[in-house]
């Protein structure tokens, strides 16, 4: 992000307008962080205050508190401004505890691994 | 510089940005910078059910490095102008 010159006064892609707002930050590894933007720079490095990670497994979700975070810009995919007048998540989603969400994550991982190993076992069939 | 200038012309138009993580976001192009970072207004995710966490996001900043495609309205592209600009850049660089 460049500092706006006089001719760019209406065309800044600066994160300045997002300062002190509660934001959703998507990271390259798929994590979703929420927090208040306190600082940023030209690399999209960011400082989030009161950050938490929103873990979503199917219809369950949980916010894991993280505290003060400095995010390296290269990991940032998207920074979204949360509209306070809208629900952050669809109504059918249920909030659960950290223990439960970790259990759900493990179940999802196991199902994925099982799917992968079954596929491997079927490979010899050469169906396609 | 060419694409930066080109995107500056598209400010105010509706575009769909497809990211390398496969999320596609439709919105009005608010601004762009030299790194081709994009700010969208009035944004909504194309496949909303798959990305529930994005439900209340209406304005977003997208880092240029994660963009795969920027899908443009067909009438929003002046191909002649683009051709000329490209030829000029090629001659200069």
From TrEMBL, chain A:
Which SUPFAM superfamilies does the UniProt entry name for this protein?
Sm-like ribonucleoproteins (SSF50182)
Primary localisation category:
cytoplasm
Q: Looking at the Swiss-Prot or TrEMBL record, what is one Pfam family this protein matches? A: LSM
Q: Which UniProt keywords apply?
A: Cytoplasm, mRNA processing, Ribonucleoprotein, RNA-binding
Localization annotation = Cytoplasm; Cytoplasm, P-body
Give all residue intervals belonging to the Sm domain: 10-85
Key word Cytoplasm present in the record? yes
**Molecular-function GO terms, alphabetical:** mRNA binding
A Gene Ontology annotation in the biological process aspect, one of them, is: hyperosmotic salinity response
GO cellular component term of the entry, any: ribonucleoprotein complex
Report which superkingdom the organism of origin falls in. Eukaryota
**Could you describe the subunit structure of this protein?**
Component of the heptameric LSM1-LSM7 complex that forms a seven-membered ring structure with a donut shape.
**Similarity comment: family membership:** Belongs to the snRNP Sm proteins family.
Q: What does this protein do?
A: Component of the cytoplasmic LSM1-LSM7 complex which is involved in mRNA degradation by promoting decapping and leading to accurate 5'-3' mRNA decay. LSM1A and LSM1B are essential for the formation of the cytoplasmic LSM1-LSM7 complex which regulates developmental gene expression by the decapping of specific development-related transcripts. Required for P-body formation during heat stress.
Q: What is this protein called?
A: U6 snRNA-associated Sm-like protein LSm1
Protein's organism: Amborella trichopoda
TrEMBL record, chain B:
Query: What are the Sm domain coordinates in residue numbering?
Result: 2-76
Keywords, A to Z, come to: mRNA processing, mRNA splicing, Nucleus, Ribonucleoprotein, RNA-binding, Spliceosome
One of the GO BP terms on file: mRNA splicing, via spliceosome
Q: What's this protein's family per the entry?
A: Belongs to the snRNP Sm proteins family.
GO cellular component assignments: catalytic step 2 spliceosome; Lsm1-7-Pat1 complex; P-body; precatalytic spliceosome; U4/U6 x U5 tri-snRNP complex; U6 snRNP
Q: Which Gene3D superfamilies match?
A: 2.30.30.100
Checking InterPro entries in the record gives:
LSM_dom_sf, Sm, Sm_dom_euk/arc, U6_snRNA_Lsm2
Q: Where in the cell is it found?
A: Nucleus
Q: Which GO terms describe its molecular function?
A: RNA binding
Q: What is the role of the protein in this entry? A: Component of LSM protein complexes, which are involved in RNA processing.
Its protein name is: Sm-like protein LSM2
């Amino acid at each position: 992000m460049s500092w706006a010159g006089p001719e760019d006064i209406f065309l800044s892609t600066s994160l300045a307008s997002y300062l002190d707002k509660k934001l959703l930050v998507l990271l390259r590894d798929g994590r979703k962080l929420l927090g208040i933007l306190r600082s940023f720079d030209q690399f999209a490095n960011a400082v989030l205050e009161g950050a938490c990670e929103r873990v979503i497994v199917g219809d369950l979700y949980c916010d894991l508190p993280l505290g003060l975070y400095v995010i390296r810009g290269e990991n940032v995919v998207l920074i979204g401004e949360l509209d306070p007048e809208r629900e952050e998540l669809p109504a059918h989603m249920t909030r659960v505890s950290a223990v439960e969400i970790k259990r759900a994550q493990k179940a999802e991982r196991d199902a994925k691994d099982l799917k992968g190993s079954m596929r491997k076992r079927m490979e010899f069939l050469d169906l396609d | 510089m060419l694409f930066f200038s080109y995107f500056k012309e598209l400010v105010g138009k509706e575009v769909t940005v497809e990211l390398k993580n496969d999320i596609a976001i439709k919105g009005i192009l608010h601004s762009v910078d030299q790194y081709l970072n994009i700010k969208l207004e009035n944004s909504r995710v194309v496949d909303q059910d798959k990305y529930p966490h994005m439900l209340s996001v209406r304005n977003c900043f997208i880092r240029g490095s994660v963009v795969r495609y920027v899908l443009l309205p067909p009438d929003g592209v002046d191909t002649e102008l683009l051709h000329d600009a490209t030829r000029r850049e090629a001659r200069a660089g």
